[in-house]
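Morning. Coffee machine broken again, so started the prediction first thing and wrote up yesterday's gels while waiting. Chain of 198 residues, entered below exactly as on the submission form.
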Amino acid sequence: MVVATRRALFTVLAKAARILQGDDVPFVVGGGLAAEAYRLRETVNDVDLFVRPVDAPRARRALESHGFRVWIEDPRWLYKASADGVLVDIIYESTGIVHVGDETFRRARHLRIDDLSVPVMPPEDLFVMKAAAATPSAPKHWLDAISLLETQAMDWDYLAERAAGNPKKVLRAIMHAYDDGVPVPSFVFVRLARDLTR
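Came back before lunch.
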């Protein structure tokens, strides 16, 4: 498999972002590009764009009408697109527990690419997705999750709300970070422990 250059990745990201913004399809950048935006790592192989489930068909049609090759990878959660040798994931559900919505878009951070401002997934949403996706075969997600807690200011109330779908994995990551010295409000432990019993 040919690995796209960093310049090609950012060029295709900018192209896709302009298309979606022009068609009024809300999205946030996730995955490795979001991790890079938060200065966690620089290992990026593709472009991950998160949209609402209801907006996924519009995102697919918009990219397709502007020259992207688009196909349904898994109708439950993922479309894929490609342009100039770069793969773009259009994700509308992540690990079965996290959906992007109005609050995700409202809280998005913004990354400048040339003359374009691109919305990046909020650190709380990214943390929950990374913690939920972590497995022994995918340790990068665990490392990203811990690093987010160590380096980013968190809205703990919002994080606990987003974690309700997978409190066990999220609590494990938070406890690890807490043991490493990250200050975590006590109510977060209480809420996640309560969610475990539901």
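The mean pLDDT is 88. Going to sketch it on the whiteboard this afternoon.
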